Amino acid sequence: MDEHSEQQEPRIVDDVTAFKLAFRRLAAGVSIVTARTPEGRPVGFTATSLASLAAHPPLATFNMARVASTWPAIEQTDHVLIHIVGARNRAVAAQLAADNDKRFDGDHWAPGPLGLPLIKDVPAWMLGRIVGRYPVHENAVIVVQIEDGGLGEPDEAMLYHEREFLRPGEPA
């Protein structure tokens, strides 16, 4: 017997715990989604759920909790900016994942297309028009059609894994 067959991790029978622990082990790309409230206040959050849906037309999706502080703005707006972040954006990703009252403190953003908050110095950004909001329990899948975008300087990728922002290591 090898050392792996002798070691067995305990089986988790609680569905929520199993879900959280398993998904912590799935490395995910990091993005930031920004919008404005109807009153014009900038809002945003760090997301690991961004995915491409189709190339023709160009569609992307992201998921969020409908109890999140940013949800009322996402529910009421037509457009969002989606930022692909890299390793140099680690501090900004952490800031946009923290206290919602302090997410836009500082000079890490400026008004962008349609007046939406544009995070500075990201490898890429896309302007998306919301074409669908699909409630699922207390969450929602948001579908956007990409209407515009821009590229910044290339950067090393950043992943979220085991509750940390990381750079990918050596090829597998």
TrEMBL record:
It comes from the Bacteria. Residues 23-167 form the Flavin reductase like domain. SUPFAM superfamilies: FMN-binding split barrel (SSF50475). The keyword Hydrolase does not apply. InterPro entries: Flavin_Rdtase-like_dom, NADH-dep_flavin_reductase, Split_barrel_FMN-bd. It holds the Pfam family Flavin_Reduct. The keyword Oxidoreductase applies. Keywords: Oxidoreductase. PANTHER family: FLAVIN REDUCTASE, FMN REDUCTASE (NADH) RUTF. This is Flavin reductase like domain-containing protein.
